[in-house]
Design goal:
Shape: elongated
Helix content: over 70%
Number of helices: 4
Strand content: under 5%
Distance between the termini: 15 Å
């Protein structure tokens, strides 16, 4: 098999892997939003029913802001706050690892272009 075909498969694998990891993270976020709605319905409603999702929306933005601004620290619910903190860290790790791996894939693509 030619090197450029192998590289194409690597890029395709990276893309599929990234989509799967993002889907898992969103599923985890939806479970957190459901827990927030169940355990703290007044906060959930006051935030405009935040919900993570695949496409940009007002509800998705409110969820991202709630997590980024650490609004969960004001819940007086240590267990739920810890879950949100774990989610925030997982989100940061995922984005960092995807950016780093994208850099590696980009270098491989450039190397192929320069060699060919």
């Amino acid at each position: 098999m030619e090197f450029d075909k192998i590289l194409g498969l690597i890029v395709l694998g990276w893309l599929v892997g990234a989509i799967i990891l993002f889907a898992r993270l969103i599923r985890r976020g939806r479970a957190l939003a459901a827990a927030l709605a169940t355990q703290h319905p007044e906060t959930y409603d006051a935030l405009g029913r935040p919900q993570p999702g695949y496409l940009q929306s007002a509800r998705q933005s409110r969820f991202a802001q709630f997590v980024a601004r650490r609004g969960y620290e004001n819940l007086d619910d240590p267990a739920l706050s810890a879950r949100f903190e774990d989610y925030r860290k997982a989100e940061a790790r995922l984005l960092l690892s995807l950016l780093a791996s994208l850099g590696v894939v980009a270098v491989l693509v450039l190397a192929i272009r320069l060699v060919a």
